[in-house]
Amino acid sequence: MLKMSAMSSRCQMRPMRCQVRLMRYQIRSMRCQIRLMRCQIRTMRSMATLPSKRFKSLHQSLHYCKANRNKHLD
């Protein structure tokens, strides 16, 4: 919360740089969203074709995707 207010005040001082940073952030998060979707689709496909023995590793790969997405959103 405190970090956000500091960011917004800095934003008012340098709107252009902030805009660029925001756009870059949005693009990165979109890319991450697409990667997560691909990962989920792959996981679902694999779950349909592979024996349940492999489910744990698939679940881990999905978890990895989510962890990566969260890393970008920080």
TrEMBL record:
Domain of life: Eukaryota
Official protein name in the record: Uncharacterized protein
